[in-house]
Amino acid sequence: MSRRRTHVLRVDLSAGETARERVPRDRRRDYVGGKGLGARYLYEELPPGTEPTGPENLLCFLVGPLAGYLPGETRYAAVTKSPLTGGFLDSYAGGEFADRLAGSLDDCLGLLVTGAADRPVRIEVEDGRARIEASDAWGDDAAETAERFPAAGVACVGPAGEREAAYATVASDGGAHHAGRGGAGAVMGSKRLKAVVARDPPPSVPDDLAALRDRDAAAYGRDPTGEWQAAGETVETVDYANEVGILAAEGWTGTGFDGADDIGVEAALERATGREEVTDAGQGEDPAVPGGFRIDTPDGEVVPRGAAPITLGAGLGVDDFDRVVELCGVCDRLGLDVIGAGNAVAWAVRAGEAGVVDCPVSFGDADGAERLLAAIAAREAPPDLDVHPDLPNALADGIDAAVERFGGEALVPTVKSMALPGFDPRAAVGVALAYATSDRGACHRRARPQDSEPLARPDRSPTDRVRDVVGEQNARSVLWSLVVDDFVGEAVWDDLGAEWLAAVDHPAVTDRDGDAPERGDRAEDRSDPVAALATTGERIWTLTRLFNAREGFDRDDDALPEPLRTAAADGTPGVDVDAFDRLLDRYYAARGWGDRGLPTPAALDRLGLAEVVDDATPLDERPIDLAEATDSDD
Question: Distance between CA 279 and CA 277 in Å, rounded?
Answer without folding.
Answer: 6
